[in-house]
Amino acid sequence: MTKNKLLLLLFFCSLNIVFFFFASACFAEQTSQPIQIEADRMESNQDKSTVTFTGKVEARQADLIIYADEITVNYQKPSADKNQSAMELAQINKFTATGNIKIVKEGWIATGDNVEYFEKERKVILTGNAKILQDNNMITGNRVIYFLDQGKSIVEHKDGRVKGFFYPDTSE
Fold this sequence. Notes:
Elements: H1 3-27, E1 36-38, E2 41-45, E3 50-61, E4 64-76, H2 86-89, E5 91-105, E6 108-118, E7 123-134, E8 137-147, E9 152-156, E10 163-165
């Protein structure tokens, strides 16, 4: 196997690892760390089952930070079980972040115009000038799709080509 093919293979493995950590940290329910969201404004709409944060939104959970102009959480309305609170029963159906997206986690940064997470499909989509940086390596496209349960990612570019920039480790 040539060095270039090996580097490409290593990059795609690292890309899947990046998305795994991104998706796990952002959207997995296993974590017990609290989520802190700060914004200029919050609006709750019970009829639409949404909560929307706008204006310099910053969502933090442990060492993960999501910056956006707006974050909307669509949730499933809780049942009438009186033994649990509404927050315990509410289930997230979809999470959407729009405008100036920047997702930061130790060692990597993802940017784009929009992020969507679909709970039923367990799928994360980053669209609009999507860029993922890990150390010096970068991949760009119009749309990045990550399937959480499959560990599979797809990078697409509608009017051009997907671009990857990979730098060999020189610390040897």
